[in-house]
Inverse folding.
């Protein structure tokens, strides 16, 4: 399942839970486009739970979206918080980032904003509410 929701004016939640249908994949791509259309930047909370088996074509389209919007990311996002709740890769073993922590990944280093990783959705909400504001100075 994929679901996107606005939790506050500056907080958006993307939920990827278990297997992704074609409808979920299209909803994800639409949510990315909606994110890119924003005029005020948001904190994006990205919840990943269960075995998220996303279609190769959707992953490819998301990569194209990222490449197309890379220079604009800081205009519509001021941070990313990733939450892994029971996320696994089909073997039932809960995924552990270890040295591949999202905060230190190559992906995170390419982003023009901070990436944080927390254990629970409640932790993500608290972090998003207390996210430091960026000064225009």
């Amino acid at each position: 399942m994929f679901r996107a929701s606005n939790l506050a004016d500056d907080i958006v939640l993307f939920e990827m839970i278990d297997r992704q249908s074609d409808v979920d994949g299209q909803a994800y791509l639409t949510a990315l486009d909606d994110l890119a259309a924003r005029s005020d930047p948001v904190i994006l909370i990205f919840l990943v739970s269960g075995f998220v088996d996303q279609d190769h074509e959707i992953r490819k389209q998301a990569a194209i979206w990222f490449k197309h919007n890379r220079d604009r990311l800081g205009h519509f996002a001021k941070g990313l918080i990733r939450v892994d709740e029971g996320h696994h890769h089909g073997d039932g073993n809960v995924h552990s980032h270890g040295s591949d922590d999202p905060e230190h990944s190559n992906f995170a280093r390419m982003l023009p904003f901070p990436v944080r990783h927390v254990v629970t959705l409640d932790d993500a909400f608290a972090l998003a509410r207390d996210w430091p504001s960026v000064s225009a100075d």
In short: The chain has a mean pLDDT of 84.
